[in-house]
Amino acid sequence: MMSEEHYLELCENPVQFENASSVNNVFFDEANKQVFAVRSGGATGVVVKGPDDKNSIAFRMDDKGEVKCIKFSFGNKILAVQRTPKSVDFINFMPDLPHLEYSQECKTKNACVLGFCWTNWNEIVFITDQGIEFYQVLTDRRSLKLLKSQSINVNWYMYCPETVVILLSTTVQGNVLQPFAFKSGTMSKMSKFEIELPALAKPAKLSLSERDIAVATIYGQLYVMYLKHHSRTVSSPGAEVVLYHLPREGSCKKSHVLKLNTTGKFALNVVDNLVVVHHQTSQTSIIFDIKLKNPDSALNVHQSVLPARSIHPYRIPLTGPAAVGTQAPIRCELYSSTWSVFQPDIIISASEGYLWYLQVKLQPALNLLQDRGKLLDFLLRRRDCKMVVLSVCSQMLSAGEKGNLPVVATVFDKLNQVYKEYLEAEQSYTMAVESGPSRGSATHKRPVRTQAVVDQSDMYTHVLSVFTERKDISHKFIIAVLMEYIRSLNQFQITVQHYLYELVIKTLVHHNLFYMLHQFLQYHVLSDSKPLACLLLSLESTYPPAHQLSLDMLKRLSTANDEIVEVLLSKQQVLGALRFVRSVGGHDNISARKFLDAAQQAADHMLFYTVFRFFEQRNQRLRGSPSFTPGEHCEEHVAFFKQVFGEQAFMKSVTV
């Protein structure tokens, strides 16, 4: 298998901790993403490693029995340790407070503590086999205050720290799940729901195992993922992952089914809003995107986006005395039975002492997913997609005539739809800010410009400007692609930047397609702009009609009068420039010197006489005297007029 096809990889800088062979126990805290390596004997030594901790936290505790569970509250302020089925011990890790242990027994008589979850820096939930107990930790008093409790038979529990929701498995079969939500000192009971179990000949007493359930946030929504195993029969479709959408309010509903098409041992991760399913038997993984809908299916039944591939091979560098300079890194055993998978994207190997973040590589998708429209839908929802999306465009266009123009159009439309949505959100934000705060309105948040926003500058720089230089692709296809992109921008009412029009014009000129250029301008396929008019002017030596096309464009703009005058004067069309200025009513404010300079340079005495007389008449009308003021700096032209036509030719002042 080509290495380019591995679309999943383990992060380059994993969290390293003491492996299971050198410690008694290794615990993982999903809320803080911390690994606790616990060593017993005399005193209990603990080393804590987290993803954001530059240095590990190490401390010792009195050995009061085997540690069953250990977690810090948020910010490493309070440590909670469970050693017995009845109670949890606490140690304050805040400055100015003594590091003395204090304990809290569960309130329910004859109950056993299954575990605990921190919901805030000083709020904790005990989950027992008979319900849950919500406490506030009073650090200064070294005691706990019961805030709320709920009696319910519990088989096992699951916690989603991101949404602060705890899921309890209840009933004999364990398939009725009761969620609770926590927020700043309050506990809310959410709607319970039932997981639909596969039809078995003999229903097991506890049919739903916590190994087959995961809770994660996908596209901002909370889902309970159920790994549904089917009995091994000839007609069996294989296992599937059933997603139940769990809203804060309202009932939980079955919303998606992910078809695995095989059986065996599986594990689940969520990476970049993709559900990743690892299959231990084949040592491969597949990914699902629940937003990629199957048009042929009424239900949200999904097949994997890409074919099954293994995680990219990972090599563990040798460290310590055993490491020799010439010794190669050891290849890590992927999909090991000692791996533990945690939500959303964590894989831990306790035997090797590594915590990895699972990552998605997008580049391999270019070769694994041939449907360009579907590929783009997939890529545009990913976090770091921009350069891969641009390479999709380049790859698509490099096929030349073989590339289907309707496919190109579809891709451009998908890009510009996202682009337009961002522009509209930005405009709404700007208008809201300018109008000021209104009563009862929420604080306006500036829209985030994700990498899915591919604007005209991105397309011009990375795709189109390079594409137009290709010698192996017909100019007809190049121009068709450029016009297709402009069509798409217009369709989404996005103002086309002048540099795209310039690219079209330069491409047409390069291939001597002047008739097409003339038509594009005549029928306003290329929108008017000053930069475009100036570009047309520069083409006059190659294509003489470009001069008049440029002037016509400038006139249509109506804000380019100065540019038109400059163009006409540069062509020594001085009288034409004067006539234009008079036609737009600007002749009272124009600079006499500029026009007299142009007339003198034309070496046509009668032209100079006409222009000079025009400004004398203007001066007489405005100031009652034909003379030029010193501020007009026309002394040189007055002297030239006197030299050529004599002093008697000057216009006499007329007193009204």
UniProtKB/TrEMBL annotation:
InterPro entries: RMC1, RMC1_C, RMC1_N. Residues 382-630 form the Mic1 domain. The lineage of its organism: Eukaryota, Metazoa, Chordata, Craniata, Vertebrata. Residues 26-144 form the Regulator of MON1-CCZ1 complex N-terminal domain. GO terms for cellular component: late endosome membrane; lysosomal membrane; Mon1-Ccz1 complex. One of its GO terms (biological process) is regulation of autophagy. It holds the Pfam family RMC1_N. This is Mic1 domain-containing protein.
